[in-house]
Amino acid sequence: MKKFKRRSARMNVMHFHILTARYFKQIFTNLSTLLPLLLEAPAMLLILIISCQEDAFTVKDITQANMISFMLIVMSALMGLLNSYREICKEREILSREIYGGLDIPAYVCSKIFVLSLIGIVQCALLFGGALALFDFHFAHPLPDILICLAAMALTNISIAAIGLFISALLKKSESAILPVLIIIIMQVVFCDSLIALEGAAGSFRYITPSAWGVGIFGKVLKLNEWYPEYFHKQLYDFNVFISLAVLAGIALLFSTLTTMILRRAYRQKD
Fold first, then answer.
1. 56-86: pLDDT as tens digits
2. What is the distance between the alpha carbons of residues 249 and 236, in angstroms, rounded to a whole number?
């Protein structure tokens, strides 16, 4: 049984800095890695332009307005998942050698989350910036509302990226991730409580679905429940936005912690 050595906080921070710098170098020196990251947001924005009406918020078209909110959040989630689901399993051999050479596992996971978070924030800013140029969202308080919606997209992206890392830590090969990734994508679409009305037991799944909380923030900021209350109402659209943001941050923290635990357990059991 391998026993992990106790390290000082200074040593763990040093590992984090080295791993983060190496991860950035891997991204920016590899065109096959960098190019998809650069193209994801523009591709998502093009889909948004093709499929949604520009005057949805001006004419108060609740269906189209809800669709735009849904697409922005789900696209943010998809980018986070695409960025993360192969990150650990593709490095298994290198990771094994480095851990037995003294690599700190929490520093490794934190470096992955940190870099993926920065990438996700930039991607979400590009996507939302394009949406702001295309649609007049009619925000009651433009600056704070824009920042809150951007935070919703970014935290949805980060929470799904953390789930993707967790899946990657469980698997030995990236090819095995197809089924769990597909399940996560379906959950973000079906259980976000936006396009499909959820009743009974199915409705409870919305509370463990990051995209549902992200869409709920958009619905709250845009006051969609107030447009046609006689026939349109979503429960999550009434939640305080800071509670919803905290839930998304909590999901990201939970799965980052679980990823660390999985890796510790996997390598502790090896000779």
1. 999 999 999 999 999 999 999 999 999 999 8
2. 17
